[in-house]
Write a structure and sequence with these properties.
Chain lengths: 114, 115
């Protein structure tokens, strides 16, 4: 079956530190991979995505590369800011034209301190 | 502002109450979803409606009853809930088919507490 495993938090970093949040997946087909972010008091919103192996998704300084050989999609940012404090969710979808089968991880809470 | 509005934002109810959660999307999407978000668990997909027809019901207890009167509105009717049903309930929408971008648009959620 399909599933997503991401590192447990919470993660606390100082401003300008390097961020990595690990995500690995299990899928029966060729899924698309996503990172969603949930800021305090808000719903989830798409941060970045990659639809095939070796694709790199990027947005707002965050990056993640679709690694089929290691079934991973780790989220990275070179220099975090206080405003990056949020919960980050890794997700996969194995159907190309529908959101009916999204599989989300448990979320990783990030707190960035000044 | 994501274009998906949920009300109420917070709800406290007893186990014998009947209440409803409401979701409205202003994006012209053709699919709407209910998710349950509990601490330390993956988001759980509860129900999916495509073009007002229910296409997914992931073994959700009958005390949760969805209703989709049109493609812009989605309700979750709650009846005889248990304390373990306390969670954040998220509504989402998307445009299915060849226009699907891979993005779900979420509301801010309804925080439910069952006493």
């Amino acid at each position: 079956g399909n599933s997503v495993t991401q590192m447990e938090g919470p993660v606390t970093l100082s401003e300008e530190a390097f961020l990595t949040i690990n995500c690995t997946y299990t899928a029966t087909g060729y899924p698309s991979l996503f990172w969603y972010v949930q800021y305090p008091g808000e719903g989830l919103q798409l941060l970045l995505k990659a639809t095939k192996a070796d694709d790199k998704g990027s947005n707002k300084g965050f990056e993640a590369t679709y690694r089929k050989e290691t079934t991973s999609f780790h989220l990275e940012k070179g220099s975090v800011q206080v405003s990056d404090s949020a919960v980050y969710f890794c997700a996969l979808s194995d159907l190309p034209n529908t959101g009916n089968q999204f599989y989300f991880g448990t979320g990783t809470s990030l707190t960035v301190i000044p | 502002e994501t274009g998906v509005t949920q009300t109420p934002r917070h709800l406290v109810m007893g186990m014998t109450n009947k209440k409803s959660l409401k979701c409205e999307q202003h994006l012209g999407h053709n699919a709407m979803y209910w998710y349950k978000q509990s601490a330390k668990k993956p988001l759980e997909l509860m129900f999916v409606y495509n073009f007002k027809e229910q296409t997914e019901n992931n073994s959700v207890p009958s005390r949760f009853s969805p209703e989709c009167p049109n493609s812009s509105h989605l309700f979750l009717h709650l009846h005889t809930l248990q304390p373990e049903d306390s969670a954040l309930y998220l509504c989402a929408s998307s445009q299915e088919g060849v226009s699907f971008t891979g993005e779900l648009f979420f509301g801010e959620g309804s925080r439910l507490t069952v006493l």
